[in-house]
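Q: What residues go here?
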């Protein structure tokens, strides 16, 4: 399908969206890792328009700031007062001037709309030589929408808003999506002639159809195959419904590209996530932001990855990872928390109840159980025993520690930063290491054990412990007398 490039796409996003009941402007609500308006902009961008324009008004600073940061290619036009969709378009054309060529008008709150549907609208508009072509859909419940009024021959006559419609017109199931392709020059002229003589006292963009038709121009419609795509998000119930639809679309694309998803209903993947083939995603997994997973990895169950890279063949189970880099064939979890700056080398391990932050772990090094590593540099082939803590914070500043290649840290070693444990060095279990350990040495930093004989018999007489001790000691004496 060869699609004519539009001269401009105008995205209307000045309204308040009161039904969201939110401090956050509606178009900035998040859906699969992107704000609502950004979904529309992404679909519009794929059409290659010469100009991308967003009309903003409500929560000007917030929405304007967001667009400036995320869509520098879009021009924001401010509509100070929201006096209707027609007024919004008129405001744009007064600011940027008449646009010649095709102008696509759409909304910031229709995140499910696909580029291919917009392309079909543009194609119909071009092949029929229309002055305006409206995207419509048959919906089971058209309440709240403008209705498409056609003559007996099926030609589009006008759009009537629900509030202005007669009971017969309200029975019509074909709704106005609010998305149109216009001839830019005809639009510029017609939009000036829209009145506010209607139930809402607004300038309706919908009136442009009847105006152009009255001028003798061709007016047409393109019926969307799937009405779900053109339905906007107005409240959080619709937001959740849209999330489900979009998530399912994303999952299907991944599955068709070779990713196994065990439980699509319980897996949530953002639009920006990339996954290599033959990776298996287990139930309860959420993949957010710019997460990238290479080929043949195993993710989940119950794992949340945000902006995390996972290497080929790595296994990540019951983990929360944020801004981490997990090397090829590395193993994470079950029950691990990797925070920003964690870099795990090839075949390394961050095991059960392990937390890491700003820590690099070399190849084949293992941190298997119950440990915290913060601000540490760990070399290759290092073994970290259970319950080792990198004590990185003195209450004021954070300090780094280094563990060099081949070192072996005994269980319950406290590595009090800043400290360096040399190549191949050991630490004795239970040591509080606050001085460097030279290569090949063992650092022993714990009190020597002393046993006080029969203390329990004297000080805990009558307890089960004392009784057990008495039995054991009596047994020992019998043994000794026999010998
Ligand atoms: C509009 C259509 C209706 C259609 C429906 C589809 C008109 C008169 N009616 O109704 O036929 O079925 O959309 O959802 O166009 N906006 C502005 N500035 C304004 C007014 C609105 O930017 O002054 C933006 C809003 O932010 C929103 C969009 O335009 O994104 C639609 O506005 P809304 O008030 O929701 O229009 P509806 O009454 O739903
Ligand atoms: Ca609406």
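A:
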């Amino acid at each position: 399908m060869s699609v004519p490039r539009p001269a401009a796409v105008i995205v209307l996003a000045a309204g308040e969206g009161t039904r969201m009941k939110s401090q956050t402007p509606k178009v900035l609500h998040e859906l699969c890792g992107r704000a609502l308006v950004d979904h529309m902009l992404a679909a519009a961008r794929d059409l290659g328009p010469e100009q991308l324009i967003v009309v903003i008004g409500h929560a000007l600073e917030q929405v304007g700031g967001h667009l400036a940061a995320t869509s520098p290619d879009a021009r924001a036009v401010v509509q100070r007062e929201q006096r209707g969709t027609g007024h919004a378009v008129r405001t744009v054309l007064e600011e940027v001037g008449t646009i010649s060529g095709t102008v696509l008008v759409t909304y910031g709150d229709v995140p499910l709309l696909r580029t291919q549907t917009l392309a079909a609208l543009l194609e119909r508009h071009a092949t029929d030589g229309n002055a305006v072509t409206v995207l419509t859909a048959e919906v089971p419940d058209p309440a709240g929408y403008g209705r498409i009024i056609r003559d007996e021959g099926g030609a589009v006559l006008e759009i009537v808003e629900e509030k202005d419609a007669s009971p017969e017109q309200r029975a019509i199931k074909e709704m106005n999506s609010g998305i149109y392709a216009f001839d830019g020059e005809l639009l510029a002229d017609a939009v000036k002639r829209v009145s506010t003589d209607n139930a809402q006292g607004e300038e309706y963009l919908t009136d442009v159809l009847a105006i152009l038709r009255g001028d003798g121009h061709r007016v047409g419609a393109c019926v969307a195959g799937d009405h779900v795509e053109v339905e906007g998000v107005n409240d959080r119930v619709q937001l959740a419904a849209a999330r489900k639809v979009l998530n399912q679309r994303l999952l299907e694309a991944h599955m068709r590209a070779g990713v196994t998803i065990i439980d699509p209903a319980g897996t949530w993947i953002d639009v920006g996530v990339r996954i290599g083939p033959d990776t298996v995603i287990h139930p309860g997994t959420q993949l957010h932001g710019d997460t990238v997973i290479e080929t043949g990895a195993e993710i989940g169950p119950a794992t949340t990855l945000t902006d995390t890279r996972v290497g080929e063949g790595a296994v990540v189970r019951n983990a929360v990872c944020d801004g981490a880099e997990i090397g090829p064939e590395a193993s994470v979890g079950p029950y691990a928390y990797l925070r920003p700056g964690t870099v795990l080398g090839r075949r390394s391990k961050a095991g059960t109840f392990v937390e890491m932050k700003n820590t690099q772990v070399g190849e084949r090094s293992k941190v298997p159980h119950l440990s915290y590593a913060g601000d540490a540099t760990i070399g290759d082939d290092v073994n970290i025993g259970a319950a080792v803590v990198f004590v990185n914070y003195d209450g004021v500043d954070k300090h780094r520690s280094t563990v060099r290649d081949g070192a072996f840290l005994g269980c319950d070693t406290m590595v009090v930063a800043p400290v360096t444990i040399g190549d191949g060095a050991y630490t004795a279990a239970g040591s509080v290491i606050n001085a460097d350990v030279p290569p090949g040495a063992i650092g022993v930093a714990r009190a020597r054990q002393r046993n006080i004989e029969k203390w329990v018999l004297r000080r805990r007489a009558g307890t089960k412990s004392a009784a057990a001790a008495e039995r054991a000691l009596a047994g020992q004496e019998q043994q000794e007398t026999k010998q």
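A: Context that may help when evaluating the design: Residues 190 and 320 are 55 Å apart (CA to CA). The mean pLDDT is 97.
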